[in-house]
Write a structure and sequence with these properties.
about 280 residues, alpha/beta, 6-stranded mixed sheet, 5-stranded mixed sheet, 8 helices, globular
């Protein structure tokens, strides 16, 4: 029987068109974003095919260099930076299926609408995102077959957005967590109002119960170890954010408190957005 393996491609930070700058920052950047290739001897499953045409073509080149045949593209959640790049992968692997959980599929379609594509993504990345839409199939039974091994979709509910999921590879103890787990990057908490942060903590508990040996975070520094300890680090960040938000009188206060706690995390711009949204 094939022993599955995995490799991770991290697209670097890229500039964002925005004049909403955090204190002391010269320009806005997008967080580095991970795509994971899970493969056997011949075939592979690619998780989260990135966003811009340029970075997704570079990803397609990277996958092509492995010699593996991508049979399936899995999308963990409905944020466009994790799936707008799928057309470049399909150019290279036209027989690949795009799948996600039944809860994610309609939310992905909404990302192509005027509110999100026209009102958010295109203004920030003008001319950089493919206009070709991808239409995933809902993964009804939650299972992807890869060379006689099962990869299991785990529905998580809300993490940094609604309808999040992870992909579990039991045979090698791997969880590809999407944005339910972050590496050394500031968390996107702009959608965490109401019960959102508590729900995210529940999602982390669900991943932890899988007892993974390796966890791939959706946003991470290139070269970071794929450590299960990122689950606890993500949990601690959310708890610290909660505590700081309870004490803050403004988004500037909240931002400053989190920078003081996490001075070295990547991309303070996403923290600035989170603070403004939560304190609005």
């Amino acid at each position: 029987m094939t022993t599955l393996q995995y490799s991770v491609y991290v697209a670097p930070s890229k500039p964002v068109v925005s004049d909403d700058l955090p204190p002391g920052e010269a320009r806005r950047m997008w967080s580095p974003t991970a795509s994971t290739l899970i493969h056997g001897d011949r075939d592979a499953v690619l998780v989260d095919p990135l966003m811009t045409v340029e970075e997704s073509r570079a990803l397609a080149d990277w996958v092509g260099a492995t010699g593996k045949n991508v049979t399936t593209i899995y999308v963990t959640h409905a944020h466009g930076d994790h799936f707008f790049g799928a057309p470049a992968i399909l150019e290279r692997f036209p027989q690949a299926k795009i799948v996600s959980t039944p809860g994610v599929v309609p939310l992905m379609e909404a990302q192509y609408g005027p509110r999100w594509f026209g009102g958010f993504w295109e203004p920030r990345f003008p001319g950089q995102i493919s206009g070709e839409r991808v239409r995933p199939e809902p993964l009804g039974d939650g299972v992807i077959e890869l060379e006689d091994e099962e990869l299991r979709a785990i529905e998580l509910g809300h993490s940094d957005t609604d309808g999040s999921s992870a992909l579990h590879v039991p045979s090698i103890g791997l969880v590809v967590a999407g944005d339910a787990v972050y590496g050394d990057v500031h968390l996107y908490l702009a959608e965490s109002g109401g019960t959102g942060r508590r729900d995210w903590l529940d999602a982390l508990d669900a991943i932890e119960r899988l007892a993974p040996a390796a966890v791939v975070s959706g946003h991470q520094r290139d070269g970071d170890p794929h450590s299960p300890e990122d689950i606890a680090r993500t949990r601690r960040y959310i708890q610290d954010f909660d505590e700081a938000a309870a004490k803050a009188s403004s988004h500037e206060d909240l931002y400053g408190a989190m920078v003081a706690l996490y001075p070295d995390r990547v991309n303070r711009g996403v923290l600035w957005n989170s603070a403004k949204s939560v304190m609005a």
